Hints:
A hairpin with a 6-residue loop joins strand 1 and strand 2 (240-247). This protein is globular. It has 28 helices and twelve strands. Helix content is 50%, strand content 8%. Helix 11 (191-222) runs parallel beside helix 28 and helix 16 (366-386) packs across helix 19 (486-497). It is of the alpha+beta class. It has helices at 6-11, 17-20, 36-46, 53-65, 70-91, 101-110, 118-142, 145-151, 163-166, 168-187, 191-222, 249-255, 294-299, 311-323, 350-354, 366-386, 390-393, 436-453, 486-497, 514-528, 533-540, 545-551, 556-560, 562-572, 576-579, 584-593, 634-653, 657-687; strands at residues 228-233, 240-247, 271-279, 362-364, 403-408, 414-421, 430-434, 478-479, 482-483, 607-609, 627-629, 694-695. Among the domains are: 2-166, no CATH class; 191-303 and 338-403 and 426-501, no CATH class; 630-696.
Amino acid sequence: MITTTEWYEKLSDGIPDELLLLKDEKGQYYLDRADEKRHINYFARNILTTPWRNQLAFGMIISLAKNKDVATIETSLYQLNSLFKNTFESFGLTSLEDFIPDEHLIKYTNGEFATHSIRYRSDCLSQYFATLHSQEHFIRSKFDETTRLNFEKHLLPEPSFRLKDLRINKKGREESERTRKAETDAVVHMFSEIRGEAHLRFNQVIRLKQAFDDAVSKVQEEGVPLPLDFNYEESDVVGECWYFRLWDKESFDMTHPEALTPTNSRQVPFFLEFIKAEKIDTSDTVEPEGLWFLELAKLGVLKQLQKNTSQKRLDRAMSFFKDWGYIEEDAKGSVHPFFSQHAGVLTQNSYISINQDIVQGVLIDVEPIYVAVHFGLLTLEMCTTSGVRINELLQINYTSDCMVKIKNEGPPPTIRYTLRLVPKGRDELENFYVTEDIMKIVSLIIKMLKEHYNGNIPKVEYGSSRKHLFKNKPYIFQYKNRALNKSAVGAILKFLCHGIAFETQEGKKVYLKTHLLRHAFATQAVQGEGLPVDIVAILLHQKDYTVTKYYSRPTATQVSESLEGLHTAFAGDIDIAEVVLRTPIELEEQLKEYKENVGTVNKTLGGLCTLDKICPKKMACLGCAAKVPQPENKKELEREWKFYDQREKYYRKHGITFEANKCKVAKRNIKKELKEIESIEKYREDENFAPTLHFS
């Protein structure tokens, strides 16, 4: 019976049956398609008692009828509820009859009372008009005239103007673009540093997990009582000795009678307490830091902040989030930037989080962090070396259709790797060429998943909004029989890169997002490396070159530093004719000229090429964004730098400035690649460090 369904029980007290019981042509209830947590529960908690509940319920049902994805419907509910709530509170309205769209929407548009940004107001207003249009179309197409009149009372109040009359969309887009470009400016020059630091952090967690496993084995196999103290020295990169204490719940409860046990806490057989860090070199006066995520764990923010969390802890967490730029300064309520929404991935056990304040050290649930850094490192590498979209990233799967090894018989013999994925707006697999380092990370994730599943990696439902386009597969981004979604990847990326400081020129903190890295990749490729826009569009798998132009517009820093650099770059690095977008016919001609797919199966100077199309720089590989430098080829670059240094001196001596500037550009590109290689060498050496545990 319909009255026994969970969504009916939750919504029937506020929503009439004529809405709740709407069915499709097959006699199935539209609300059967709703996501219980993200649609039904949110609606019941936040909208069911409001004057606008019927209008938003109708909008949700129509979105379900149109098979919109979960996130789109969730966003619609949130934005419309936010618009109404802000308006009603500001004007003291109590019923929908008091809401006058021609007055209140105009004032909302002009920002006369709303605390929302222009961009957010633009999004909310767009949502309002889109929902109203869908409601009107649904009524016209589904109902006869009598029924239509009955359902009109559930429409959003209709204003006399159209969205385009407000002109806020243009303002919202302009503000959004300014914000995005300012954020891009903060990260665009730091790709190698970000990757290097992420690899070092990954190595630290791998060693932490091994030490944790060794300590657990000592307890289980030798019967050593708990708690058990141990320490180990980290690598020279860190230069610290870290001290830990191993607990289980029983020993912790005995030592800490005041410990609380949440009702929703999953079992935790063993967990760690980080006690302290000490400098190995006693003459070093810099304060030891320990693991980068200790502050996050101590604050208890590596999970969702529950409603029963004390106000003191909530205020402390909110202040921390604002200081680091994870939320806006005027944000209210609880937010969860590090909550993965995925069991076993990053999220700390509730028992550990709620008892953080009763210990001097920091309690750590090791396994979820160990799992998270694997996914985080692959995400960061893919985004910074290819600008991949998150929907493409989540498609990576453990099948021969996705992972392809390309052998080139040489000389010399080489092996290249490609991931076959479906880009946005396409329906066919395309090549995403990757380095051996990326495939190594993929292999580590496969190994971790096989250990987790005791054998084969299962097929699971695709984890993002395009799940209706993809079959169940053994996706790499999965854990506990469920694929990760965008929210999980976003939380993991913020976690892995937390503490790496990024700021706009105005001093606003910036945190890493996959789409921001995509913008930064495009900007650096065009503005920093001189790649033509149409070639960068190929790298990004974008059809529309105008979108690539928007992504790759210069940042404020690049503009301010461009005067001397621009002349040099144009003299030595860019064919001015190539800056102009070329026609498909011209591209076809150049494709014939370079028909051997330069790069992917041929070694390039100093590294590996990830582009399988025409060579955009006529095989002048130095500084090309499509190339990933490799430490194995370091000597090649060093020899090239000496060559260009000698040539530059010769040309300047003889007054041949044009050629001297070309050499200067080449030297600059080589220096940049050598710097990135130094970072790679540093974390590769760190990978091989094996600490010795000392038990006490």
